[in-house]
Amino acid sequence: VFVLTDDPTLRYAYNLKVTSVVLAWSLAVGTLHVCLSRRWVPPALKYVATFWDLAMVSALLLADRNAGPHSPLIFLYFLVIAAAPLRLSIRLVYAATLGAMAAATLMMGCYVFALIGSTDYYAPGSPWQVPRPSEIVFLLSLGAAGLLAGQVVRQAQRLVQGYPVTVEDNKEAA
User: Fold this and answer.
1) Running DSSP on this structure, what letter comes out for residue 71?
2) CA angle, 70 as apex, 69 and 74 as ends, to 5°?
């Protein structure tokens, strides 16, 4: 579409940026697939994959000057945290949670100071401004998601170690 059309309604720069992010992300997925299919799994691979995902989410958010932190894509940070317990590493969950919080903060800084400009962002009535309480609640929500993801890993470790787990019978409750 980018090459073959002259339609002025298409946003060429945005399409090019998103396509670049998707290609970079696809290249990383292909590399990860090759590593896993050959059973080459160095200890750092899970961290590299997680931080690459965080970088790609941030790049995707910064691709559109008009959306940035206002985009619904900002919730992809939660998916990165939710994927961390699948590798059953509590350290990875900590790294993913703190990494998501840092990536969201850095993305917001790039949005304010590089894309929009601090004078336009902080101008009274600016449409680009994100309320400070919303930023804080978002970061606290990422932290809470990390705590819950950590509990999933801890519970899985308890099950592997053989701790008894009981499940309430629903017939008695009825």
Assistant:
1) S
2) 55
Q: Residue 107 in contact with residue 69, Cβ under 8 Å?
A: yes
Name the token pair of 169.
């019978």
Q: Return mean pLDDT, the chain.
A: 89
Extract the tokens encoding 74: 């900002």
Tens digits of per-residue pLDDT, 131-160? 999 999 999 999 999 999 999 999 998 888
**Which residue did the predictor score with more confidence, 164 or 75?**
75
Query: DSSP for 104-171?
Result: HHHHHHHIIIIII-HHHHTSTT-TT---HHHHHHHHHHHHHHHHHHHHHHHHHHHHHHT-------HH
By three-state DSSP, how is residue 64 classified? coil
37, 40, 157, 162 from 87: Cα distances, Å: 16, 15, 12, 19
pTM: 0.83
